[in-house]
Amino acid sequence: SYKFWATQPVPQFGEEKPVIFEEGPLKIQKVEDIPDEPIPLNLAPFRWVTMDLTDEKQMQEVEKLLYGHFVEDDEAMFRFKYSTSILKWSLMSPGWRKEWHVGIRSGDTLCAFIAAVPTEIRIRDKVIQGSEVNFLCIHKKLRGKRLAPVLIKEITRRINREGIWQAIYTGGIVLPRPVSTCRYYHRALNWQKLYEVGFSPCPSNSKPAFQVRKYALPEQTSTKGLRELQAKDLDAVHSLLERYLKRFELTPVWNREEAEHWLLHKKDSYAEQVVYSYVVEDASGKITDFFSFYLLESTVIKHPKHNSIRAAYMFYYATETAFTEPVDKGALQKRLNDLMADALILAKRHNFDVFNALSLMDNALFLEKQKFGPGDGQLHYYLFNYKANPIHGGVDKK
Ligand code: YNC
Ligand code: MG
User: Whole domain around residue 159: which residue ranges?
Assistant: First the structure.
């Protein structure tokens, strides 16, 4: 019943048993066989455009389209609100190409968008030059017209023209065929507000005042040597993260420039801080741990008092505690809990309302203890043109 996805180089449902098979591309092509003209848009009055996100006006057009039409929850209470700062961070990462910021205009109005950035992806022992696709968005009045497959085919063409044949993407909906599925977890920082906007219900056996107390946090962090990430820490953090990510089966591979882009906040480049990163420096000056989270607001649709929720999303983290010989899982669990307890305090200090995390990496070791609760949402991970065995979110290899 997936008319479009049944025609694409992605694993189909029911095709293979969950057994070990050789992993790799599904379809091999050559750049010279990829059309150099856009996919026909047989739908007047629409036309393809390449969005120039270095032009503030065009950046704001993308922001506006997403502001009104991007991802909502099932009950249409909240909608992701991507600021121009977070769009710049997400879409202008090292190696970004203007041609991968694809729009459809009707007259002067931007009415659909899809985007990608290049990224190296490691799937178990193999590393591929790939792309990450996001921000697929069609104006609400143009839904159900089979425009999404056209956008997907056009961005595929533009990526293929650069000799890149694989992509990673995520979504809340089920498509052929997830390589992994994670659950969202939420930790209230400002419970009262989350209650008022209808995000956090009050359990029937509890009272608001009790819930507020349950989620209260200390004023001060407790990890000795904890401080904000600085440019001088990047080599150490890059190497620590690289080693830490080897513990997992599906990860990006960052060079030094990418580590800097994704982790270090640059005041002069962003109107608003997007990424918040912290390191632990021990008495000898060695970086032993780091963690990071980023800001993504959600619009509260139709609420008399609150316009938006400031959500912190757990990003990358790593700790030397993972590398003790012999492996000491208890010590790792304790260290991660100490670090994440401090991450919550820092997020609260920066006025975030909620801390979100997925059931991946080592998060299972701290989610419950740090009072995260499972949400309704799932996030499915997909690979385009790559056959891989299922990846079990959060299960570390060892
Ligand atoms: C989706 N999210 O199944 P079938 S996530 C992929 N990802 O095809 P129409 C999707 N495919 O089932 P509408 C999809 N949602 O017949 C729908 N589809 O095979 C498929 N929402 O097209 C769907 N953003 O145009 C069906 O649908 C076909 O008008 C139907 O538009 C869909 O960014 C959408 O949730 C999502 O703006 C654009 O509802 C619209 O409903 C919308 O009739 C709100 O389309 C915003 C929203 C999605 C966020 C995201 C990741 C996108 C990944 C796309 C796939 C990339 C593949 C790799 C390409 C590069 C390859 C290389 C190398
Ligand atoms: Mg459509």
Answer: 5-174
> What CATH number is attached to the domain comprising 354?
3.40.630.30
Cβ atoms 354, 199 nearer than 8 A: yes
Residue 397 has pLDDT above 50, yes or no: no
DSSP 202: P
Inform me whether the pLDDT recorded for 396 exceeds 70.
no
- Which residues approach ligand 1 with their CB closer than 6 A? 2-5, 69-71, 131, 133-138, 143-149, 152, 155-156, 159-160, 164-167, 169, 171, 173, 175, 384
ipTM above 0.95, yes or no: yes
151 Cα to the center of ligand 2, angstroms: 10
Residue 229 carries which DSSP code?
Answer: -
In ligand 1, the atom with minimum distance to the C-alpha of 171 is 5
Q: Give the residue whose CA is nearest to atom 5 of ligand 1.
A: 171
Cβ proximity of 364 and 155 under 8 Å: no
Cα 46 to averaged position of ligand 2 atoms, centre (Å): 12
Closest ligand (CA of 149):
1
- The answer on 238 and 160 residing in a single domain is no
Q: Is residue 118 part of a domain?
A: yes
Nearest ligand to the CA of 140 is: 1
pLDDT in tens, 45-91: 899 999 999 999 999 999 999 999 999 999 999 999 999 999 999 99
Residue 71: is it exposed, middle or buried by C-beta count within 10 angstroms (0-12/13-18/19+)? middle
Q: Is residue 395 part of a domain?
A: no
pLDDT tens-digit series, residues 285-341? 999 999 999 999 999 999 999 999 999 999 999 999 999 999 899 999 999 999 999
Q: Going by DSSP bridges, is the β-strand pair 287-300/308-319 parallel, antiparallel, or unpaired?
A: antiparallel
* Cis peptide preceding 178, ω within 30 of 0: no
- Kind of pairing between the strands at 373-384 and 167-171: antiparallel
Give the residue from 174, 203, 232 where a domain finishes: 174
Report the separation in Å between the CA atom of 150 and the middle of ligand 2, taken as the mean of its atom positions: 9
Ligand 2 centroid to Cα of residue 305, in Å, is 34
392 occurs within a structural domain: no
